[in-house]
Design a protein that fits this description.
5 strands; 3 helices; disordered N terminus; 142 residues; 2 domains; SH3 type barrels; alpha+beta; rod-shaped
């Protein structure tokens, strides 16, 4: 579909629209890159043999589909984050067993809160005495 743009459009395929830096994955096109590629294709098309209407409509439909899938993925991600928080809030007030990272002993304590961390969710045990990553919990009691 974009075969004639190999020398022109490659600079647009991997650029980030907000910062101009390279994308981490060259296999992904965001909607801004797709639109820039389409505009570039229109700008450099041969005036004696312009793009067919059906091809243009097809590309616009692909752009619309890409935008809708992006929006749906964003909504799903937001839903999953909210769902996760709901599940973790249900742990507040429950007793849990975990291995204390300082002493290596198994400790039991009451979950008094939760907070986000760079590597996931951290449970606050016994009013801040311990902060335990969720994956370190060995047992949950009621």
């Amino acid at each position: 579909m974009f075969g004639s743009l190999s020398s022109i459009g490659s600079q647009y395929l991997y650029s980030n629209s907000s910062s101009g830096s390279s994308r981490k994955s060259g296999a992904e096109l965001d909607k801004d890159a797709f639109l820039r590629l389409l505009v570039t294709q229109l700008r450099y098309q041969d005036p004696l043999s312009p793009m067919e209407n059906t091809e243009f409509v097809s590309q616009m439909a692909q752009f619309s589909t890409l935008e809708q899938v992006t929006n749906m993925a964003r909504s799903l991600e937001s839903f999953l984050v909210n769902f996760s928080w709901t599940q973790f809030v249900s742990l507040i007030g429950k007793s849990v067993k975990f291995t204390d990272s300082e002493t290596g002993k198994i400790v039991e304590g009451k979950v008094t809160g939760i907070k986000p961390a760079s590597d996931g969710i951290v449970l606050i045990i016994d009013n801040g005495k311990y902060e335990v990553p969720l994956n370190s919990i060995e047992e949950i009691k009621s």
